[in-house]
Amino acid sequence: MARIAPHERIEADPTPGVVREQAIAVPGLWAGLARTEAGMSSGWHHHGGYETSIYIVTGELRMESGPGGHDVVNAVAGDFLHVPRGAIHRESNPGDCESHIVVVRCGQGPPTVNVDGPAV
């Protein structure tokens, strides 16, 4: 067993607009915290062969995906989201305070792949 304190997390898997702090990265599993400032949007990206589970700890989260980014899901603190493997998406924070989300991914390959835009 291992305990990872906040100061032990490392910034990893950069995507413009979101800060990811990796806590655990072992074969088949990635877990950490992501922070998005109020009013910010991330760049478009996907998580390759990883299924992703998200828990919104604080703030708000807006996820855009699908053709042209027209599929939208809004979530608030206490909500869970599921992002299927390979789903191109971006997240934004429509709220007025920084959002914090716990991210757990199960799969293989690079945990984050940045792309130029939404699915077509």
Describe the 3D structure:
This protein has a single domain (6-114), classed as Jelly Rolls. Helices cover 0% and strands 52% of the residues. It is built from no helices and 11 strands. It has strands at 10-11, 19-26, 29-36, 45-46, 49-58, 60-65, 71-76, 80-83, 89-92, 99-108, 113-114.
Could you spell the SSE succession in H and E letters?
A: EEEEEEEEEEE
Q: Kindly report how far apart the N and C termini lie.
A: 43 Å
What is the percentage of strand-forming residues? over 45%
Structural class: mainly beta
Could you state the CATH homologous superfamily? Jelly Rolls
CATH architecture: Sandwich
Mean pLDDT: 96
Shape: globular
Oligomeric assembly:
single chain
Largest sheet: 6 strands, antiparallel
Helical residues, percent: under 10%
Beta-strand segment tally = 11
Low-confidence stretches: none
Radius of gyration in whole Å, from Cα? 13 Å
Name of the level-1 CATH class: Mainly Beta
Q: Kindly identify the CATH topology.
A: Jelly Rolls
Total helical elements: 0
Q: Biggest sheet, strands in spatial order?
A: 1-2-3-10-5-8
Total discrete domains: 1
